[in-house]
Amino acid sequence: MATIPRWDLNPIYPACDSEQFLHDLKKVVSLSHELEEAIQAPSCDIVQAVHSFELALDYLETLSAYSTCLLTTDTANPQYLKAVNQVEEESLVVQRLEVLFLNFLRKREAEVVDLSKEGGPLFAYRYVLSEMLEEQKHQMEPALEDLASDLARSGTDAFSRLQEAISSSATSDWDETETKTVIQLRNDAFNADREVRKKAFEKELAVWKLFEIPFAASLNGVKGTTITLDKARGYESPLARSLSQSRIEPEVLHALIATLEKNLPMFRDYLKSKAKALGLASCAFYDLFAPVGKGGRSYTFDEARAFIVKQFSLFSKEMGLFAEKAFQNNWIDAEPRKGKVGGAYDTSFPLVKQSRILSNFDGSFNGLSTLAHELGHAYHDSVVLPQSHLLRSYPMTLAETASIFSEYVVFRGAISSCSAEERFTLVEHFLQDTTQVCVDILSRFYFEKSLFEARAEGDLMADELSSLMVDAQKRTYGDGLSVYHPYMWAVKGHYYSSDLSFYNYPYAFGQLFALGIYAQKEKDGEGFAERYRSLLEKTGSASAQEVAQVLGCDLSSESFWQEGMDIIASYAQEFSNASNS
């Protein structure tokens, strides 16, 4: 296999102790102080203030993304941790500015509204500015917001880093000669040998058991802080704040959750068919990612690259050229290694108008699909990066649109010209993924909802957290599984963010939204790629419902969500028929 690449961060900064990096750290502070002083004057130009505010945010986003990229590829590196801490320290100045800037907008609200009218210089910002004015209503006094930001560094942010550091470096003896990280143990979930999967699962649980006390303390700290701050800011609940951040109304979430719940029997039937295909009485949690059939194949990184570029190009020449550019310019760190965090992500650097992608490529179709997913995110970045900061910052719900759409484009390409045996395997892989995004995500939503309710009464012990998790999994997987994973609350870093509660349902939103708009592609045919790009362009400057209306979709209607679910159901039926034949 050809060498799996690491990314090139030099176009961003030469190093985290370089003159350029340190200069920009000072720059973000000076920009913030200058604007903070300017907005105190009654004569401050609102339009110029908006653009100055965006520039400060661009500097901070670039610095934060860069230092995070360094640390997530080497979590034990003290220099990288120092860089993250430096950025976090200077970010307090920007966070203070954000509070004062929202107060400035509120004080000048009549002028802001007038400038946002059609023909006005801030017309493009009309939705974003109205959103910011609404957010201002949920702010504490500036001194309290400053205190909350400062305490977060040694509180919730530190808890999050602890979870990330342990999760990326904790190890277990595999046998007398080999030690595996917990990330490697989790990757064994894809092994064809059930004994290997089971052994890895049991050793993984033992690792989480070993660290359950610090994980539980961290999670209690994060959720307790979230409850306190959200209440102080006037939110009805952490979920209410999440809906605001996601730019959706409660009826949209209700329609989404109702659709997920209505289709749970279909996913459970798929898992029963998978058990039959594997020759099992029932699936355990460690069978969820087991390969089915003999049609699976492995890919070199170069093969994965060529396939993704080809499939992207067939849908959109622009998407294909973008993917090739990302590969050619070493924007991807795909090599698995000790000290590097698991999973995958995409991040953008607005000052240089570039993205970077982290993944852990293992040669499987899943590894290829993950690359396509993250390249979808990066393509989305490329569409919105030419816009100013406030017009390109899209919500969590829409963040998964391009990534899942890209995954599906690659999947459709893979099954379009393969043998029946390989198609059987690929269809099952698609069902694996959609089960995670629909069923497992629903269990995570149930868990977090129950966690917040219980945490409001006091701290929870590790075994209580595990009990809540198993209950949530039983509600969703039902009799589709016979063994559950009690420590998923320790595995998923999303639970450890105080600023992004309920970072679970946006994945289900993205899955069904992407499939729903793909269904539109099948109806519209030629010209859809341009309309799709227009949809992505709008994601940062409108509500999710308004964005969906670019393609005529109604997010408050269960029938729209069912269109995406029907695509999944068609493959579930195909898989069931093949398993029973």
Number of helical elements: 26
Number of strands: 7
* CATH topology description of the largest domain: Neurolysin, domain 3
Per CATH, the superfamily of the largest domain is Oligoendopeptidase f, C-terminal domain
User: CATH class of the largest domain, please?
Assistant: Mainly Alpha
Query: Which parts are unreliable, with pLDDT below 50 for 5 consecutive residues or more?
Result: none
User: For the residues shown, what is the average pLDDT?
Assistant: 94
The biggest beta sheet is recorded as:
3 strands, mixed
Structural class: mainly alpha
The appropriate CATH architecture of the largest domain is Orthogonal Bundle
What's the alpha carbon Rg, rounded to whole Å? 24 Å
Share of residues in helices: 55-70%
Q: Which of globular, elongated, flat, extended, rod-shaped describes the shape?
A: globular
How many domains, in number, for the residues? Answer: 2
